[in-house]
Design goal:
The protein is α+β, with helices and mostly antiparallel strands. 32% of the residues lie in helices and 38% in strands. The protein has three helices and six strands. Strands 1-2-3 form a three-stranded antiparallel sheet, with no helix packed on it. It has a three-stranded mixed sheet with strand order 4-5-6, covered by helices on one side.
Length: 138
């Protein structure tokens, strides 16, 4: 896997993925940014959310669960001193579908967290990661 980060101006940068996609990252004005994009640490949190949601949806679909929507809401706390790593992350899954089995949803989230989600497992080296979920009917 490869990536390239190109400085734009101030503290703004363009991240280019090996698969050919781009994303603008920037810092807050008080640190020289213009607030043009997400912060790099926000990208890490977004990456974890996307990684775990990908796993959960794949597992539920393989389990023939009729999922119509899935949202992962993440809340993270960072250390107060440098390096300001994530110390706590909570992921709240909102899974919508028809006749969803709560045990299967719980199992999919657990499998993602413990076995499949590379981002969660890496961030779990410094952060305590917790999960919960709610099921909504479609």
């Amino acid at each position: 896997m490869k990536a390239r980060i190109k400085w734009i101006e101030g503290v703004a940068m363009l991240g280019e993925s090996g698969s050919g996609h781009g994303v603008v990252m920037d810092g807050p004005p008080e640190l020289g940014g213009r607030n043009l994009g997400v912060r790099p640490m926000e990208m890490l949190l977004l990456g974890m959310g996307g990684c775990t949601q990908f796993d959960v949806l794949l597992i539920l679909r393989k389990g023939r669960q009729d999922v119509t929507d899935c949202v992962v809401e993440l809340e993270a706390t960072r250390a107060e001193t440098d390096p300001k790593v994530f110390t706590q992350i909570h992921a709240h899954f909102i899974v919508t579908g028809r006749d969803l089995d709560p045990k299967r949803v719980e199992q999919a989230i657990r499998l993602s967290a413990e076995k499949y989600c590379s981002a969660s497992i890496m961030l779990g080296a410094t952060a305590t990661i917790t999960h919960d979920f709610e099921i909504r009917s479609a």
